[in-house]
Amino acid sequence: MITEILERVLPPIIEAEMEKFKEITMVGIKKEYYTVAEASFVFGPSDKTLYRWNKQNILKFTKLNGMTFIKREDIESLFKETQVAGINLNKYNQMHNAV
Prior knowledge:
Largest sheet: 3 strands, antiparallel
Oligomer: single chain
Shape: elongated
Structural class: alpha+beta
Mean pLDDT: 75
CATH class: Mainly Alpha
Order of helices and strands: HEHHEEHH
Number of helices: 5
Radius of gyration: 16 Å
Strand order of the largest sheet: 1-3-2
Strand content: 5-15%
Distance between the termini: 46 Å
Number of strands: 3
C-alpha cells in the first residue's frame, strides 16, 4: 500500500523539482562548477559519457571534499572546439543561446 502511494505521489514531485532546476539553469544562472549530474542535465551528455571522457582525458574533473565537479569553462570549451560523433548539443545550445 505504501509503495503504491509513493509510486503515485513521488513522480510529480520529482518532475516539478527537475523543472525548477531547469528553469533556474535556463534563465541564465551560470555556475563556475557543475556536479556530474548537473553537467549531464544542462549540457546533454549522460553521466556515463562524462565519466568516460574524464577517463580518456577529454574532460577534466575537479575533486573537492570527496565530490566531483566539472568546470563550466572546460565543458563549454569541449563543445566549442571538438566535434565528437554522437554528442547531443541541443541542451547546450539552448542554454548557451538563452543566456
